[in-house]
Write a structure and sequence with these properties.
Number of strands: 6
Helix content: under 10%
Shape: rod-shaped
Number of domains: 1
Order of helices and strands: EEEEEE
Radius of gyration: 24 Å
Strand order of the largest sheet: 1-5-4
Length: 101
């Protein structure tokens, strides 16, 4: 069986990105430890992964069951699109730890 035809809606590359995180810890003389963390300081809109695969949606997000006409062997071409997994948003943590003896 010959391969099925594919049509791409988007480019097949995801752009590069950088992740910047900060953290601080302060321990007192007692068993208390205070900590703070900030993740995704730059908070850029980026993708952590991308995958090219078949889809039933057009570029506007509408479902199209058979977007292209059948070929001479009555096969329908598959429409491909790149799926991007979004990065996490900016996150903040503040906390206190207590060590029990």
């Amino acid at each position: 069986m010959p391969p099925t035809a594919f049509f791409d809606l988007r480019p097949d590359r995801s752009p590069g990105y950088a992740v910047v995180n900060f953290g601080a810890t302060m321990q007192t003389r007692s068993a208390l430890t205070f900590f703070a963390r900030i993740a995704e300081v730059l908070d850029r809109h980026c993708a952590t992964a991308a995958q090219l695969g078949p889809t039933g949606f057009d570029a506007a997000g509408r479902f199209v069951s058979q977007p292209f006409p059948a070929d001479a062997q009555s096969r329908y071409a598959l429409r491909n699109s790149t799926f991007y997994a979004p990065d996490a948003p900016r996150l903040f943590w503040l906390g206190v730890r207590h060590a029990f003896d």
